[in-house]
Each structure stands twice: as C-alpha cells, then as structure tokens.
Hints:
Layout: H1 10-25, H2 33-39, H3 41-51, H4 56-65, H5 70-81, E1 99-104, H6 137-155, H7 166-172, H8 200-208, H9 212-224, E2 232-245, E3 259-278, E4 284-296, H10 300-315, H11 325-329, H12 334-342, H13 349-364
Antiparallel strand pairs: 1-2, 2-3, 3-4
Helix pairs in contact: 2-4, 3-4, 3-5, 4-5, 8-10, 9-10
Amino acid sequence: MAYVAVKGGTEAIEASIQRLTFERIRSQELLEIKTIMATMRGMVDQVMSESSLYSEFLAALAIKQSEANMEEAVFLLRAHRSTLPRLYYTRVVETDTMAVERRISASFKDIPGGQILGASYDYTHRLMDFDLIDESKSVMKVWLEQFKNDEKSASESSDLTALPKVVDYLRQEKLFVEVEDDDTEPIDVTKQSIQFPTTRGERLQVLTRGQTGAVTSLGYAAIRGYGAVHPTVGELRVGKLPLTISYPTDPTDDIDNDYYIGEIKVTEVEAFVPISTQKENNVEEIEFEIGYGICYGQNETKAIAMSILDQSLELGSGVHPTQDEEFVLLHIDSVESSGFISHLKLPHYVTFQSKLDSMRKIRKA
C-alpha cells in the first residue's frame, strides 16, 4: 500500500470558503451587529481584551464573521488592529477617576463609599430561566422603563466618579512594602517582541491580552499548589475611564488643554498578598504586596487571575511553573497558542514520510 500526498488547489480552497459561508447562513437567519453588541457583552468584552483593541462594533463584527469562534474572532480583530495607524497616545489614566458601576472588596466589609454590587451573575441561582424563550419586546420595554426610573432616583444621591481606593488605607498604615515610582517609558509588546527577563510593564501587557481561559487556568494552578500565591481581593472595580490626548500643537503640554476623546470600560483588581519579611534582630513581620489585574470590559475572573499571576511572576523564584515568566507569558496568548496547535493541520508530508522511512529501515534491519 502506497502513501500519497493529498493535493489541494485553488478550486478546492475556494469551494471550502464557499462551504463556510453556506454553513453560516444556511438557516436563513441573520445576526445583526447591533444585536451582538447589545446582547453578548461578555463575548464582546473578551474579544476586545484579547485583541487589545477597544471597539465594541469591530469586536461584534469579528464575532459574527467567525460564528462566535472566539479564537478566530480574536485573530481577525488583531489582524485588523495591525493595519491601523497610531495617530495619538492618550494621557496616563488614573483609575481613581473611574466612573464606578461595580465595586466590591473581599478584605473589608465596610469600605468608604460602600460596596456596590452592580451587574453580576455572582448573586444569581444559576438556574435556567425558561421564561426567556418567550421574552417579548413589550414586556422588556415596561421593565426597562421601571428600572430606569428607580435607578435615576438612586443615582441622584451618590457620586460614583471619585471613590477612594481601598489600598490607600492600608498604605497609610505602612502595611505595604515601599516601592519607588518608576516613570520609565514602557515597552509596547505589540510593537516589540518580549525579551527575557521582562519588565513588570511587559508582563502586565501580555497578561491583559492573554486568553481568558489560559490566564484563569494558570491563576487557578498558582493558588492550588503550583504556585505560592493565595491573595485576598482588596478591591475589584468595574467602570469607565475617561481618555484624553494632549493638544497637538500645544508646546507647553498643559493638561488643561487636553482633548477628551471618549471612555473605556475596564475591570480592575488589586489583590493583597501577605509576605513574611525579616526585620532587625531577625524579627519576622507580615507585609502585603499587591497583585494587579486589569482588562477591557467586564471580565472579573480574568482580572483576578491576572493579579495572581502578576504577583506570582514578581516572586519569580522558578520553583513553580507559574513563577516562570517564560512558561506563563509564552503560553497564554490566544493567537500564538491556537496558531501553533492549528499548524498541525498543515501538510507535514515530507517530515512524516521521513519518519516512516526511518521506521521501515529499522524494522528491516
């Protein structure tokens, strides 16, 4: 029996692409972009985060084109991102200015400004809601009108744009290790390949654009025994951050002349990690370090896992895989990992034939 290479040409490839389009529209139902944007928040947020491009419209288009295949959607959006010019860089954003929609702390029950539960599945029963099968627009509009009226009366009595950070209270008690400010210009990992050892800025960039499942899995591994980090969530925030750019022709670079260009929704986590330190006279004391996580949209599990891996990589002892930056950073990227796995579908005729020839020669010998 002979082994022959399977040949494919232009006609076969075009036929495959035609078949792909057929499978997408065969049911004769079209999914509108605005419907994806309005009803699939989690998916849109995940695609934007892993693509490093904040555009709900383009993320929804990528989801539609890929038939909700997340890896493919991220690939599409990253490819498009690479074609876009960089006209301006925004000012550094201070997350204290976040317009908070959700804010919780697992470290303190009572925090200044209060805990704000916001929109979360955390407090649902996770039971299937079969009423959604017959959900109607008329009922939806009535519910929305009532909700907006209730929300208006509640929001009038609270300012959610200047809530203090929980971490500042522990910092005032000097319970954190003092770290000097580092104003070094960060390396953009989307323009320059990372070199080991990396800076914390590079690690945070790779983590925030990492595949949600991969970041979550390694974060889980780190607290389950394959790492030395078990933090407490000091503060988790979900909200919108204002973005500004400096006036292009202003030589003074005065921040008061900045242009406001919009806002982005993010999830931010500051996790407290206890560490033991040796003080004078060999006295052992407990201090805290901060694991940091932030990502586009509302993706709390990823942001918490990111904060775990951030602190795990800061320790960097290499005892556990999750403390090895090369292991973590090179295996959590959606496009890199799915691309390498998928390359196994490409023709390996020559290498496989070579292995077959070797086996045959060994068996004949």
